[in-house]
Structures
1.
Amino acid sequence: MSIDPVLARIDETLPEATERLLALLRIPSISTDPAYKAECDRAADWIVEDLKDLGFDASKRPTPGHPMVVAHSGGEGPHLLFYGHYDVQPVDPLELWDRDPFDPELQDTAAGKVIRGRGSSDDKGQLMTFIEACRAWKEVNGSLPRNLTIFLEGEEESGSPSLIPFMKENAEELKADLALICDTGLFESKTPAIVTMLRGLLGEEITIKAANKDLHSGMFGGAAINPIRVLAKIIASLHDENGHITVPGFYDGVPELPDEVRAQWQNLAFDHAKFLGDVGLSVPAGEHDRTPLEMIWSRPTCDVNGIWGGYTGDGFKTVLPSEAHAKISFRLVGSQDPHVIRENFRNHIRTMVPFDCEVSFHGHGASPAGQMEISDPAFEKAREALTEEWETPAAYVGCGGSIPIAGYFKSVLGMDAMLIGFGKDDDQIHSPNEKYDLESFHKGIRSWARVLDKLTAE
Amino acid sequence: MSIDPVLARIDETLPEATERLLALLRIPSISTDPAYKAECDRAADWIVEDLKDLGFDASKRPTPGHPMVVAHSGGEGPHLLFYGHYDVQPVDPLELWDRDPFDPELQDTAAGKVIRGRGSSDDKGQLMTFIEACRAWKEVNGSLPRNLTIFLEGEEESGSPSLIPFMKENAEELKADLALICDTGLFESKTPAIVTMLRGLLGEEITIKAANKDLHSGMFGGAAINPIRVLAKIIASLHDENGHITVPGFYDGVPELPDEVRAQWQNLAFDHAKFLGDVGLSVPAGEHDRTPLEMIWSRPTCDVNGIWGGYTGDGFKTVLPSEAHAKISFRLVGSQDPHVIRENFRNHIRTMVPFDCEVSFHGHGASPAGQMEISDPAFEKAREALTEEWETPAAYVGCGGSIPIAGYFKSVLGMDAMLIGFGKDDDQIHSPNEKYDLESFHKGIRSWARVLDKLTAE
């Protein structure tokens, strides 16, 4: 059975699909702000109604926070679960928007048509690519793709407090052969991409205490040890002159890139000058012997996310402070063990703390890196589907940030996830004037139709 | 004429004198915080009224900042000028205070009675020792000591921006034969002391800017430079492994201690174990080849008084910040030139700032060290007076803090200054729970009566 009639139907009905997305975008489902609780509920209801119209067995499922949406197409065959989120980021600063963020419209721009509004790219536009693909499929074939589950949450932008409990309580219902996640982007706005490497994250807060109170730097300066200087020395020593991290054993479990992946990344011709130039930088600042893509995708990091101590207000205070603090985080890759690294880090710091100072630590989460099993044939099938749609070889890529849902699917439900998305780098997600290119929406729908076709073929 | 009746009067009226000090301490005259501008004004008014009641020709004198208080007793004879400051340090962290810093009280402690509250020791309690000495003198003798000027500022804790212009504009009025400054302490809380060496102070605020906005540490971590790490490296490099400061030319003008002063300091048998032990420390942290007294009196320092950047609130935010900041100060000695050191420091930092980062500086005052002319017979007279009052030989000592006013009196008005004060090492000035011993206040008043007696004797 050819997928072409479904693709033709998608092309014909794009105006109607766009209108449906605009209707969903008009609902201000800001999950982090309790004032918008009813709107989150309304967004869930809207989607449930739409999925019911399409023939899904769909329901809104209560949680202590915002509701989940769960829908099943029924039938036999490999069980696929699609994940997206219907909640959106806050819109402040509102004055930087060119129009009401919840009065979306299709706009003509020099770079083509865009759908402008909060949530257009993150993640309502993306989740609707999948639903619209199902709609065209149903309209052409008379029935939905078989054994499909749609699972949408409304708390992704506010830390997903209800997600793991809900997944645990409904594990049998949600456990599928593979999860499909649509919350990522094209590589450099042009190459279709499947994310197969996600960095883990380890957070540590460190406090150096010296004197038992703040001192006058005139009275004690020269004789009393300064915890800010101690902390600065520790931070300065965490990297060597080549940018390598000096915590003992830190690189245990950091794999070298397989040659084929390295070759694939070289073909991507990552424009690091533009990537850094867009934020006012020019020189890749990581390990001297690594490429920029390795620095952000496949190499671990150590960064200071915050530092404070002494007097930080206006003017000057000649205090010799009793304490200094820093928040330090590590991005992890491969099989680096966050708990081992935490212990090694703490022991390493302890060896650097001079007499008269004490160090204390507060841990802030520890998640390992994620590595998808691309040996599962579904990955190559999806890559083929994306390559056909975009007429550019799709790539397996890394992601420097952590996308917790992928880890939860693995740890809670024991299933792998395939991350495919159509956002572009200039979509301004989490910022004013968020947009989603009509091309992303249109070819995103077509992409899912092709992926579903490959994955559900007997 | 014996001074004894004045001393007796001081003893009898100590409760009333204490009440007056408590009233002044209730005025939160924090000069560095613009929110307290009116309170600084109110403190000046309070003192002017008190001095007028005493028979001084007193007035509040406007400046672009907080007002000065100037008062004259009139008459002939050697012209003595007394200096103090009515402004106080900020009180943060407020939660470490055992009571409202501006609700002072006389407390019984195991070590005797203390006056507790912000400014009790620095400097309202100290300046009131002189005013109370004048009051008792007037009440006993019927008139104030002759040809006395009282000169109080309200910006000592915020860099004294108006001081030099005011002194220049009013040079004829303020120029005296000798200045008396009450803003220092007893040596080791027991030996009366006249400070003859004062360290200078140079303050610098440094900002490192990297990216043009805060970045997500997942997306950019590894590739984008982190300004906190840059700042930490700079701070760590400002001292070598022996504790020497690495700014080029920094030690130009730093004298070795004369043999006789070194001998006198050895006789003081400074108990550095107690000095550091009282604040929870044990090891002198300065230059490895210097004694603890040298570290705090006769050697220059470089300290970090504050540092901040990135996320410093509760929890964790994986931000890669665009900026990092530090407040850095230098204590100066001998003939070190603060302006030359400022330039050398800035140029030195500039050589350490990597590509993609910018550094900017904000100066916070620059005062050279001071050295008094103890050959003036007034010094020996005052030392006799203090020795009689405290029944312990008074000493000429150094002072680790900078008391810029002493330098200004010399450079702007061409007069020497004699620094006598009664603070104790555990007064917690600039810290929570500041106090002034009632003994300091009481014997301080008596000391000034004796000093005035010696210096105004025909």
2.
Amino acid sequence: MLSPAYLVLVAVLLLLRLPAPAVAGRPLIDRKPAPSEAAATARWLAGENTWGVLSTISSDLSGAPFGNVVSYSDGVPGKSHGIPYFYLTTLDPTARDALEDDRTSLTLSEFPLGTCGKIDPENPTCAKLTLTGKLKLVDRQSSEADLAKAALFSKHSEMEGWPKNHHFEIFKLEIENIFLIDWFGGPKPISPSEYLEYGRNLQGSRMIS
Amino acid sequence: MLSPAYLVLVAVLLLLRLPAPAVAGRPLIDRKPAPSEAAATARWLAGENTWGVLSTISSDLSGAPFGNVVSYSDGVPGKSHGIPYFYLTTLDPTARDALEDDRTSLTLSEFPLGTCGKIDPENPTCAKLTLTGKLKLVDRQSSEADLAKAALFSKHSEMEGWPKNHHFEIFKLEIENIFLIDWFGGPKPISPSEYLEYGRNLQGSRMIS
């Protein structure tokens, strides 16, 4: 017969192996993935950050590349989908630029998440992600606009109260190229479909639905 | 005759009005300037941040605007000059792009400094700065390269040990246009000379020499 102490030990071991209970709003990828998991790392950076730099071809500055600080969201907390949505006004040059030339990139760093520790922001092990593609206006009457607003307003609550007469509109980045540095040895090759489909078939705490 | 209590009170009042003693390495502008002080705010953002997003015209991506996370320094601690210096390798696309087309912008946010509190990163009162100009290679034999290395290595100590065979070089941004949002009402007009000369003639804790 098994001793009570042994049964307690087995119970503790089983408990330690159990996934944490699902909680609404819990991050989909709850810690930095390993460097070998490129698509997971890119999705983690997109899901954990709430702001980045959106670069456009500047119409005010004769075609110079113009980076601007923007807030974004790729889903409500706990439901990250990888597509960045923005809430922009043409009072700001970024939206005006995109309506003339929609080539755009969104750049994110691991550094502000606090997980790089004392590693320099330019060190390749402090991950950095650039999503390049087209910045597109989302039809405000579409169901996609409703999803995008829910994604944006849940992570940026003050947006909902921004002045109506500034005519904010929803934009999204249609991703065509992914540049990820998360380790030594140069950028990791990730296709937009690998990035967007990451997690669809995973079970447990990493499931993205 | 004046009472001892009165003399003590006067001494305390005088002490309270004295400027804080100068300390090596103390920030030149030790708190966020008022929204009316545009050049000071821009210099504060450049001096307090240590990393940002450098955007170039991508040669790999058919001329798309490409933002990349980089570290920079505009002076040794306590001696901010406003010109951002970078330590880049052509193993990375940003330096390669700049050597083909030197049009570049550096984008900085107040948000990672922690002084925006709960204000959204896109809110105009959470300051954002874009310096647009030309990214130029600095002659490694010049005295400017020595100053730039001192500026970079004092704020990014690990840079000094980065691999020699990666051929890092010093680059600088020659600023031609300044875009600052630090309050409601649109970007503040600041000329590059106003920005670069800010503080040269100020006395006391704000003196920049």
